[in-house]
TrEMBL record:
Protein name from the UniProt record: Leucine-rich repeat and WD repeat-containing protein 1 WD domain-containing protein
A Pfam family of this chain: WD_LRWD1
Subcellular locations according to the entry: Chromosome
Domain Leucine-rich repeat and WD repeat-containing protein 1 WD residue range list: 30-419
Naturally occurring in which organism (per UniProt): Cryptotermes secundus
Top-level taxon: Eukaryota
Classification lineage: Eukaryota, Metazoa, Ecdysozoa, Arthropoda, Hexapoda
Length: 424
């Protein structure tokens, strides 16, 4: 039976669910219940706004242990950024751009070390999107302290943001025209947050870019592009020397899952799984590829055109919709990807990353269907139910314990799921 959920307000969502049966996969069972479904990015605070897209979500890192996360998740959509406590469903902070035309596409967290601050670790959230303006937010201080237009164009947008996993003040910004810019934001500290944005490098993919990841194994920055995956070896030396002419690597994937082999390999999602493994989703393939980055580099020698041989192929939706970003947390052992029906596909990372002879596609642990939602605000405004339209899950985030999953959708919903029970 489909789970039921009553949606009433943005901060309080009573949840009544009847658990559907979950299939066993190698003696492992897992299930989640819908906990809070929020509509907190509405234009003009319209409680019945189902047009605003929420594009990305990301858990706040634990300041003391970067392998862990807090109970706060950041989401971006429309011209606002929201901070939500996943345990309570409370929106603890909201930051809106002064420019009503802004549309935030991407966010990224980092933890900076500030000598004179107490505590010395400080979490910073970066956000950018359609207007080419970079915003920096200190959530604990309750302030958006920096705003700078990094690209002046009516057609070029910021499509992805990523902080370097070790050099935490370095921010990579991917642009829709194929450029990747590397910036040093310095060490801003309260109360003045004095800083100067310093451009370190500009890389050219010459392809539309959808998201970025950085692997410490090989110091490789990779971009999901309109044709395959592009990469650059970005070392500390390259950043110090402000090297703009780094050689580009191009990763190509199997074509056997596409009926028309002339179709370009549009990669709309890329995620690091840990231990040098990468998850890649090519639009229209109906699968997720898991591959070994360093083994791929070694097998192709000095070539800059690299053929990827997946070690695993994960069964996923046969949808013809694009731009559904995967979420993963290696400590939680989960890879999650939404589809265009509001469902979440969950995979066991341990199984997905096993290196053995490929004989069959790996099936998901389970699929969490979109719950049956009674939306009082839509009823009052005489609008159609959410599930009348496609419900595209734009992005998913996984907490470090795997206890909470967060999905954001094309119909202005932030969906928080809570783990019920798992055992072997």
């Amino acid at each position: 039976m489909k789970r039921k959920l009553v949606y009433e307000t943005v901060n309080e969502v009573p949840c009544k669910s009847e658990n559907s049966s979950v299939p066993y996969v190698e003696n492992y069972q897992i299930d989640y219940e819908p906990l809070h479904f929020l509509r907190c990015h509405s234009r003009k605070n319209d409680p019945a706004d189902i047009q605003t897209q929420v594009w990305q979500c990301a858990f706040e890192p634990n300041r003391d242990d970067q392998k862990k996360t807090t109970n706060v998740v950041a989401t971006c959509g429309g011209n606002s950024i929201c901070l939500i406590n996943v345990k309570t469903g409370e929106v603890t902070g909201k930051f809106s751009s002064k420019d009503l035309r802004e549309m935030f596409y991407s966010i990224a967290w980092t933890t900076l070390f500030v000598e004179l601050a107490d505590p010395p670790q400080m979490n910073i959230l970066a956000a950018a999107g359609a207007r080419g303006t970079l915003h920096l937010i200190h959530p604990e201080g309750g302030v958006a302290f920096f705003e700078c237009q990094i690209i002046r164009s009516k057609t070029v947008t910021v499509s992805s943001l990523l902080f370097h996993p070790k050099q935490c003040s370095i921010l990579f910004c991917a642009l829709s025209d194929g450029q990747v810019m590397g910036w040093d934001i310095g060490s801003p500290s309260p109360p003045d947050y004095n800083m100067k944005l310093n451009c370190l490098l500009t890389l050219e993919a010459r392809l539309e870019i959808f998201n970025l990841v950085y692997s410490l194994q090989g110091n490789i920055l990779m971009a999901a592009c309109s044709i395959g995956v592009c990469g650059w070896i970005v070392t500390q030396e390259a950043l110090q020397k402000k090297s703009d002419s780094l050689p580009i690597l191009k990763f190509q994937f199997p074509r056997k899952h596409i009926q028309n082999t002339s179709e370009p390999q549009l990669v709309d999602s890329l995620v690091l799984l840990g231990d040098g493994m990468v998850g890649t989703k090519c639009a229209l393939h109906g699968v997720i590829y898991v591959w070994d980055l360093m083994a791929t580099l070694a097998a192709n020698g000095e070539e800059q055109q690299l053929t990827v041989t997946p070690i695993r192929v994960l069964t996923w939706s046969n949808t013809d919709n694009y731009f559904m970003n995967m979420g993963c947390h290696p400590v939680a052992g989960l890879l999650v990807c939404g589809d265009d029906r509001g469902a979440l596909w969950l995979y066991n990372l341990k199984e997905a990353m096993q290196v053995k002879e490929q004989t069959h596609e790996v099936q998901p642990l389970t699929i969490l269907d979109w719950p049956d939602i009674t939306d009082m605000n839509l009823d009052r405004n005489r609008k159609l139910r959410l599930d009348v339209y496609d419900i595209v899950v734009d992005s998913v985030a996984v907490s470090c314990t795997g206890k909470y999953l967060v999905a954001v959708t094309s119909n202005n919903m932030v969906c928080i799921w809570k783990k019920m029970k798992s055992w072997k």
